[in-house]
Amino acid sequence: MRWLLDHGLPRAAATSLRSNGMDAIHVGEVSMAFSTDQEIMEKALIDERVVVTLDADFHALLAISGATKPSVIRIREEGMKGPDLCSLILQLWKKFSAELMSGCVITATLHQARLRMLPIHS
Fold first, then answer.
1. Which of 42, 91, 99, 104 has CA atoms 20 to 30 A from the CA of 119?
2. Class assignment of domain 2-117?
3. Domain residue spans in the chain?
């Protein structure tokens, strides 16, 4: 799985994911720290990456556009450290890998996750 971590998330999480054999980048590592949500979505789509973010706007962009990709995971836990975030992402990947590859949105906390397949219908 290929990951693109948004601003607001620790860069150390991308490093931890790479240590676990994942292809992960943080927007700050690829000169996208000040990019718009739409630009980040386009990068994820082109590079076939799953966006991991704290921002609910990504789910809204997918709903409005009717897009089927990229998958987006919204983390609803503020202030997570890199290794803890990495652990959560890996848990979500193990549980939802097929759905993430097909196109979905996930909203996750440390204790629960909600999934919707793309495209999102009203």
1. 91
2. alpha beta
3. 2-117
